C-alpha cells in the first residue's frame, strides 16, 4: 500500500475519490477515502510529546536542587518556544496558509471561500505548533474571535415578544387599562422595545439625554432672550433660499421634528414622543393616541386622520403630507389583505371576534412597517439628496446609514446597528429651523396666531413657548373630526376634497423657502424663539463653541467667524462679550450659512447644523432596529418591501412620487415634477433636469384634476400640455363588444400616444400616425395567409412549444420500481414556455435580435425580450398602475432604444436586398419582405423601424401569451378535462382534431376571463351594455366621449352570457367560432383571427401531449389547504371587481368609488371548495386581475409563472 504525504494527516489508500479540479487558491484538494476514516498522523503534536525513558532521566539529572520554594518543588517552565522552533514545525504549504490568514485579516472582507478549506488548514497549523507557542496562541485567538463574531452577542432578533412586565406596561394600556402585548416584529405605540435588551431606550415619556458636557463657566447674567431675538434672530426682510428649495422640504422637516421631539409641559426634561422616526405624528406617541386614529377594521386608519394635534396648527402643507401618508397606509392595508402572503392575514369567519381583532392588528402593524419604510426612504434619499445637493447631479450615491457592512456585505465591519437611540436636549435645539419658513407660510402664521385668536386661550398669560401647545390642545375633538387650514370634511366619507389638498401641496412646491442664517426668523415666531432660549437655559446646555468642539469642529475665536456680517457680529459682541459665551441656540441661528455647493451643500444651513444634523440622521436610522435588523421582506412582506423600496435606476433612488401618486391619482401625472421632485420649486427643477439632460422625461404643468381629450383640439395642445387624462370607461357584455368590433373607425387601437409618452418627446420617433400601424397589421395578416401560411404558423408554434418544453424542463424525484409515477418532469409553463413561444414567433417573422443557441450573436435573451415587450405594452395600452408607470416607462425606454437602434441599422441593410419570393419561405422572410416593400414605397428605414416593426412586435407577444396562460391555468383545475384534451392532442393531426383543440382553447379563454382590451373612442355616443342582477340581464346605457379609454373587461357577463353561450358554465369545444368575438378584441386582432387560431392550436397540441399534466402542488397538504399555501403551481394574482358603465378612476382613488379588492389571491383560490377533477359548477373570479411576480413583490398585468409536471414518456 502506498503512503501519501503526511502533511495532510490523511493516509491515502488505493481506492480513493479525487476532486475533479484544483482550487484557484493554490490548495491541492486531498484524496478522500471512500469507505475508511482518515488515519492517525504523528506529524501533528510531535512537539508536545513528553521525553521518554533514558532521555528524560538524563535531562532531569542535570537540574539543580529545588531550593526556590519552601515545598521543595521546581518552578514551572513558562518559557515559550522560539521562532526557529515554530518555523521548524511548519511545512512549506503552511506558510501559504499563514499568508492567506494574514491577507484575510488585512482586507477584512468577511466572506471566505470555504472550498479553500482555510478553517481546516488553520487547525492543521495550530495542531503542528509546539506547546505554548506564541504563534499557536495568536492563531487560536484569531480563530476564536472569528467564530465569536459570527453571531450577535446578545442577539437583537427574536421570534416573539417579552413576558409582561408591570414596570413597562404603562404606555401600552388602552383607555380601559387593557394591556397590549408586545411583538418584537411590530413597533410599539410608544417606541419601547426598539432595543429588546433595553426596552425603555428611546421610548416616549423618557428624559432627554445630554450630548455635550458643559465645562465653560458662562456669564452669570445672560442677556434678555427678547433682546437676543430682536438683535440677531428676528427677520428684517425675507431672504429667499439661494437654491430655490421649496416649502415642502421644510414641511417634511416639520414632520421629522415633531416625530422626534415633544417636550412635556409639566416636566421639560421629558419627551412625550419616542426617539425614533416612527411617524408618530400620524400614528400617535402612545397606545391611547394610536387607538383614536385607528378604525380597528381591516388594519386601516380613519379617513384622512392623523394622531398628533400639534400638527393641526402648522402650515397646511404639513398636514396634507400626513393625510397623504394616511391614504398610503390604507392602500397598503388593502393590498396586504388581498395578497395574503402565505396566509399571513387569513380573513376571520363571521362572528369570530378574537380572530377579527388579530386580523386587524396584524394588518395595521404590518401596514405601519411598510408605510414607515416609505417615510424613511423619502427621508434618506429625496430629503438627504436635497440637503447635500446631490439632486443637481446624476450620481446614484446617497447617504444611507442602513448600508450593510461586515461579512454579509464583503466589507470591513461597520458601525453597530439596531442598538437604539435617545434624543438629546441639544438636538431639540438644533432642529428649530424657523428661519426657513417661506413668505407664504409666514403670512399664514401671522393670520392664524394673532393675539385676538389666542386671547381666549391664554388670557393675561405670557405668550411663550407654551402658546403653540396650548392652542394645539384647545380642541379636544376626535381625530376624525379635527380639521386644518380652514378645510372641511365630506360628511359621508370623512375625507377632504382632493382638489383643495392638491392646491395646497402644489402651492407649497412653488413656494420658495427662507434662508438659514441670522435675522431671518419671522417676527410672529418671537414668542416661540424666546421660549426656546429660556428652555435651553433651563437645560443648562453647553455653549456654541463647546458643542462644536464635541463634534470635532474648530471653535470660533472671534465674533466675525461666527458671522461675517458686521452688524450681527457686533450685536453678538455686545450681548456675549466673548465667543465662548455665546449660547447654543442663539448661536446656531445667528451663525453664517454655507453657500450652495454642488454636490455638498444643498439647503445651505449654518455651519454647525450642517455637520451635526448628518450625525444625528445616521444615529437615528442606524440605531433603529426596524430600519436595520428587522427591515426585511419577511416582516414587511415581499410586496410591502418592494412597494416602498427605492431603485437607483429611477430618479437616482428618489421615491417621493410614490406618496403623491397613491394619494392623488386623478391629479398628478406619472411624470409630474411636482410629484417626483417636490422639495425644489418646479421652475428650478426644470433648470436642473435640463442641465442633467433629463428634462424631456417629465411634465412641468401644475397638477389639477385631469382634463379629458375633448379639451384638446390640435396637436399643439399635446405638445404644450402633454397627454390628457383619458377616462377609463368600462363595458362588460358581448353586446357592447360586438358593437365596438364593428365600429373600428369609432374605437381605435392607439399606439402613437403611448409610444411618445414612453420615449419622452412628440414626433421624435413617430413621424406618422396610427394608420401606419394598422397598415402594417393588415399587410402582415395578408402575408401570413399566403402559401399555406396558417399551416406554417400552426407548425411553427407546435415545434417551438415542444422545443421549449424539452429544453426548459427538468426531472425531479426518484425512480422507485414499486411506485413508477414518482419520477416527474417539471417546467414553468408560463415563464419558460408560453411567454417564450410568442417571443420566438415575433423574433422569427420580424428578424428581432434574439440571443439563442442557434443565434449566439443576438442582443436580447428570451426573458429580456419578453420584459421589453410587456413593459411597452403595459405602458402603451394599459398603464395599469400610476405609481409603476414612470419606472415602467424608463424600463421600456431603455429596451426600446437599444432594440430600435439595432432594427434600424438592420433595416437599412435589408431594404437594399431583393424581395424573397421563394416558395414556403414567407414566414421566416416576412420581416425582410416588409422592410423591402415599405422601402420600395418610399418609407424611410427610421419610420419602418419605429412606426411598423416595433409596434407590431410589441403587439404580438404579451396579450397572446396571457390568453394561453389563462386557458391552460383554467384547465389544470379540471383533471377530467385535461385528460380529454390530452386524448385529442395525441391523435394524428387533422382538421377535426385541430377544430376540437381550438374549441377547448377558446373555451378556456372564455371561462378564465379577467382580461382587458383597450380602445380609444373618437365619437360621442351612448352604447348599450348589460350586466346580470339576481340572475336577470339588465341593460345599462354608457355614455362615451371622444378620447375615452374604453376598457372591454371580459369578466362575468362577456364570458357567461347565455345569449351567446347556451349553458355557459359547461365547457363545449364545438361552439360556433363567431361566438368568440370577445377573444378577437382581447387579442386586439394583432395577428388576425385565423393566425391567432393557428397559434392556439399549435400550442395547445404541444402542451397537452404531456401525459397526466397537472399543476405543481404541495403534496404535504390536503385539499383545500394546499391552495391557501400557494405552491409554485399556482398563478398568484389579485382580482379587483369592476362595474358595467362605471368610469374607473385611476388606481387608489380617494374620492369616488372604485374597484374593490376581492378576497382572491390566486387563480386557484376561486376553486378552493371545489374538488379538482370535477367541472361541475364552474367557479370563476369576476374582475380584472394583476399577477404577482415570482418573488411576490410586484403586481403585473400579465401572468408570470406557473410550474407544472407530468409523467415522463
From TrEMBL:
GO terms for molecular function: dioxygenase activity; heme binding; iron ion binding; monooxygenase activity; oxidoreductase activity, acting on paired donors, with incorporation or reduction of molecular oxygen; peroxidase activity. Residues 1-50 are annotated as: Disordered. Heme b binds at residue 434. The keyword Lyase does not apply. Coiled coil: none annotated. Residues 11-27 have a biased composition (Basic and acidic residues). Transmembrane segments: none annotated. InterPro entries: Cyt_P450_sf, Haem_peroxidase_animal, Haem_peroxidase_sf, Haem_peroxidase_sf_animal, Oxylipin_biosynth_metab, Ppo-like_N. It comes from the Eukaryota. Keywords: Dioxygenase, Heme, Iron, Metal-binding, Oxidoreductase. GO terms for biological process: fatty acid metabolic process; response to oxidative stress. Pfam families: An_peroxidase. This is Linoleate diol synthase. It comes from Colletotrichum noveboracense.
Amino acid at each position: 500500500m502506498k503512503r501519501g504525504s503526511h502533511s495532510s494527516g490523511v493516509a491515502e489508500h488505493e481506492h480513493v475519490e479525487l476532486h475533479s479540479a484544483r482550487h484557484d487558491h493554490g490548495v491541492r484538494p486531498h484524496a478522500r477515502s471512500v469507505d475508511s476514516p482518515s488515519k492517525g498522523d504523528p506529524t501533528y503534536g510531535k512537539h508536545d510529546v513528553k521525553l521518554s525513558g533514558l532521555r528524560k532521566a538524563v535531562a532531569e539529572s542535570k537540574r539543580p536542587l529545588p531550593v526556590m520554594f519552601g515545598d521543595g518543588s521546581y518552578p514551572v517552565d513558562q518559557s515559550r518556544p522560539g521562532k526557529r522552533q515554530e518555523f521548524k514545525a511548519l511545512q512549506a504549504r503552511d506558510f501559504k496558509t499563514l499568508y492567506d490568514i494574514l491577507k484575510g485579516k488585512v482586507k477584512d472582507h468577511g466572506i471566505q471561500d470555504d472550498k479553500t478549506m482555510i478553517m481546516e488548514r488553520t487547525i492543521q497549523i495550530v495542531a503542528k505548533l509546539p506547546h505554548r507557542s506564541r504563534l499557536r496562541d495568536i492563531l487560536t485567538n484569531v480563530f476564536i474571535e472569528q467564530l465569536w463574531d459570527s453571531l450577535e452577542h446578545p442577539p437583537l432578533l427574536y421570534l416573539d415578544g417579552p413576558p409582561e412586565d408591570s414596570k413597562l406596561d404603562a404606555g401600552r394600556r388602552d383607555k380601559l387599562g387593557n394591556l397590549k402585548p408586545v411583538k418584537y416584529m411590530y413597533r410599539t405605540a410608544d417606541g419601547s422595545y426598539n432595543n429588546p435588551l433595553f426596552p425603555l431606550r428611546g421610548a416616549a415619556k423618557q428624559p432627554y439625554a445630554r450630548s455635550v458636557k458643559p465645562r465653560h463657566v458662562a456669564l452669570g447674567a445672560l442677556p434678555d432672550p427678547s433682546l437676543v431675538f430682536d438683535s440677531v434672530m428676528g427677520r428684517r426682510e425675507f431672504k429667499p433660499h439661494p437654491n430655490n428649495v421649496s416649502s415642502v422640504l421644510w414641511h417634511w422637516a416639520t414632520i421629522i421634528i415633531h416625530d422626534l421631539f415633544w417636550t412635556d409641559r409639566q416636566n421639560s426634561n421629558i419627551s412625550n414622543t419616542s426617539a425614533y422616526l416612527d411617524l408618530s405624528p400620524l400614528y400617535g406617541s402612545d397606545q391611547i393616541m394610536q387607538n383614536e386614529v385607528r378604525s380597528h377594521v381591516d388594519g386601516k386608519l380613519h379617513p384622512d386622520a392623523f394622531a398628533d394635534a400639534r400638527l393641526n396648527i402648522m402650515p397646511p402643507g404639513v398636514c396634507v403630507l400626513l393625510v397623504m401618508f394616511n391614504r398610503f397606509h390604507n392602500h397598503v392595508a388593502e393590498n396586504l389583505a388581498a395578497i395574503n402572503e402565505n396566509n399571513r392575514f387569513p380573513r376571520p369567519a363571521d362572528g369570530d371576534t378574537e380572530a377579527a381583532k388579530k386580523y386587524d392588528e396584524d394588518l395595521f402593524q404590518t401596514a405601519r412597517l411598510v408605510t414607515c419604510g416609505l417615510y424613511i426612504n423619502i427621508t434618506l434619499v429625496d430629503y438627504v439628496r436635497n440637503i447635500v445637493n446631490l439632486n443637481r447631479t446624476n450620481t446614484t450615491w446617497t447617504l444611507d446609514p442602513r448600508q450593510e457592512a461586515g461579512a454579509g456585505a464583503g466589507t470591513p465591519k461597520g458601525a453597530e446597528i439596531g442598538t437604539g437611540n435617545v434624543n438629546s436636549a441639544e438636538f431639540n435645539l438644533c432642529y428649530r429651523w424657523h428661519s426657513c419658513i417661506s413668505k407664504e407660510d409666514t403670512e399664514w402664521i401671522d393670520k392664524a396666531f394673532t393675539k385676538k385668536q389666542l386671547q381666549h386661550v391664554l388670557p393675561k398669560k405670557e405668550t411663550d413657548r407654551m402658546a403653540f401647545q396650548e392652542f394645539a390642545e384647545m380642541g379636544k375633538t376626535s381625530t376624525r373630526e379635527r380639521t386644518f387650514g380652514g378645510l372641511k370634511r365630506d360628511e359621508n366619507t370623512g375625507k377632504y376634497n382632493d382638489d383643495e389638498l392638491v392646491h395646497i401641496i402644489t402651492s407649497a412646491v412653488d413656494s420658495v423657502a427662507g434662508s438659514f442664517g441670522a435675522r431671518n426668523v419671522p417676527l410672529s415666531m418671537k414668542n416661540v424663539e424666546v421660549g426656546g432660549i429660556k428652555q435651553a437655559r433651563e437645560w443648562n446646555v453647553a455653549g456654541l463653541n463647546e458643542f462644536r468642539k464635541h463634534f470635532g469642529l474648530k471653535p470660533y475665536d472671534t465674533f466675525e467667524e461666527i458671522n461675517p456680517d458686521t452688524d450681527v457680529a457686533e450685536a453678538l459682541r455686545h450681548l456675549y462679550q466673548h465667543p465662548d459665551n455665546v449660547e447654543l441656540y442663539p448661536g446656531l441661528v445667528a451663525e453664517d450659512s454655507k453657500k450652495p455647493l454642488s454636490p455638498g451643500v444643498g439647503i445651505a444651513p449654518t455651519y454647525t447644523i450642517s455637520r451635526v444634523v448628518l450625525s444625528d440622521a445616521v444615529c437615528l436610522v442606524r440605531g433603529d432596529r426596524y430600519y436595520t435588523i428587522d427591515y426585511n421582506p419577511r416582516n414587511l412582506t415581499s410586496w410591502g418591501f418592494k412597494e416602498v423600496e427605492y431603485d437607483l435606476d429611477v430618479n437616482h433612488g428618489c421615491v417621493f412620487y410614490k406618496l403623491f401618486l397613491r394619494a392623488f391619482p386623478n391629479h398628478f401625472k406619472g411624470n409630474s415634477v411636482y410629484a417626483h421632485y417636490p422639495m425644489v420649486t418646479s421652475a428650478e427643477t426644470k433648470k436642473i433636469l435640463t442641465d442633467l439632460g433629463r428634462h424631456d422625461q417629465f411634465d412641468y404643468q401644475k397638477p389639477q384634476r385631469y382634463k379629458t381629450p375633448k379639451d384638446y383640439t390640435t396637436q399643439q395642445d399635446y405638445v404644450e400640455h402633454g397627454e390628457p387624462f383619458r377616462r377609463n370607461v368600462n363595458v362588460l357584455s358581448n353586446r357592447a363588444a360586438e358593437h365596438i368590433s364593428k365600429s373600428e373607425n369609432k374605437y381605435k387601437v392607439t399606439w402613437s400616444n403611448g409610444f411618445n409618452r414612453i420615449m419622452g418627446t412628440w414626433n421624435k420617433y413617430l413621424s406618422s400616425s396610427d394608420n401606419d400601424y394598422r397598415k402594417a397589421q393588415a399587410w402582415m395578416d395578408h402575408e401570413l395567409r399566403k402559401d399555406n401560411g396558417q399551416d406554417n404558423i400552426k407548425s411553427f408554434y407546435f415545434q417551438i412549444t415542444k422545443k421549449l418544453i424539452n429544453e426548459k424542463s427538468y426531472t425531479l424525484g426518484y425512480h422507485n420500481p414499486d411506485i413508477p409515477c414518482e419520477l416527474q418532469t417539471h417546467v414553468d409553463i408560463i415563464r419558460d414556455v408560453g411567454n417564450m413561444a410568442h417571443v420566438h414567433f415575433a423574433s422569427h417573422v420580424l428578424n428581432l435580435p434574439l440571443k439563442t443557441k442557434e443565434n449566439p450573436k443576438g442582443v436580447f435573451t428570451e426573458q429580456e425580450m419578453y420584459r421589453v415587450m410587456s413593459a411597452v405594452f403595459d405602458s402603451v395600452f394599459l398603464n395599469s398602475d400610476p405609481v409603476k408607470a414612470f419606472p415602467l416607462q424608463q424600463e421600456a425606454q431603455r429596451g426600446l432604444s437599444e432594440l430600435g437602434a439595432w432594427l434600424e441599422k438592420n433595416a437599412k441593410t435589408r431594404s437594399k436586398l431583393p424581395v424573397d419570393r421563394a416558395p414556403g419561405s414567407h414566414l421566416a422572410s416576412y420581416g425582410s419582405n416588409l422592410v423591402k416593400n415599405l422601402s420600395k414605397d418610399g418609407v424611410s428605414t427610421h419610420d419602418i423601424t419605429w412606426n411598423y416593426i416595433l409596434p407590431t412586435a410589441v403587439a404580438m407577444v404579451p396579450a397572446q401569451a396571457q390568453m394561453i396562460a389563462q386557458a391552460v391555468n383554467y384547465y389544470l383545475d379540471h383533471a377530467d378535462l385535461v385528460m380529454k384534451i390530452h386524448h385529442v392532442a395525441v391523435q394524428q393531426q387533422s382538421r377535426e382534431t385541430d377544430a376540437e383543440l381550438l374549441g377547448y382553447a377558446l373555451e378556456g379563454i372564455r371561462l378564465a376571463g379577467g382580461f382587458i382590451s383597450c380602445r380609444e373612442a373618437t365619437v360621442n355616443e351612448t352604447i348599450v351594455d348589460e350586466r346580470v342582477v339576481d340572475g336577470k340581464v339588465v341593460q345599462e346605457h354608457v355614455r362615451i366621449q371622444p378620447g375615452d379609454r374604453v376598457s372591454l373587461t371580459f369578466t362575468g357577463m362577456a364570458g357567461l352570457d347565455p345569449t351567446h353561450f347556451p349553458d355557459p358554465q359547461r365547457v363545449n369545444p364545438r361552439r360556433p367560432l363567431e361566438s368568440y368575438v370577445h377573444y378577437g378584441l382581447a387579442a386586439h386582432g394583432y395577428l388576425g383571427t385565423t393566425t391567432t387560431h393557428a397559434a392556439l392550436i399549435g400550442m395547445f397540441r404541444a402542451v397537452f401531449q404531456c401525459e397526466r399534466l397537472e399543476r405543481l402542488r404541495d403534496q404535504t397538504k390536503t385539499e383545500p389547504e394546499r391552495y391557501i399555501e400557494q405552491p409554485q403551481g399556482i398563478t398568484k394574482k389579485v382580482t379587483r371587481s369592476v362595474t358595467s358603465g362605471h368610469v374607473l378612476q385611476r388606481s387608489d382613488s380617494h374620492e369616488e368609488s372604485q374597484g374593490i379588492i376581492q378576497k382572491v389571491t390566486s387563480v386557484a383560490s376561486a376553486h378552493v371548495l371545489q374538488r379538482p377533477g370535477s367541472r361541475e359548477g364552474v367557479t370563476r373570479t369576476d374582475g380584472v386581475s394583476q399577477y404577482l411576480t415570482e418573488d411576490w413583490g410586484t403586481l403585473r398585468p400579465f401572468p408570470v409563472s406557473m410550474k407544472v409536471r407530468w409523467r415522463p414518456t
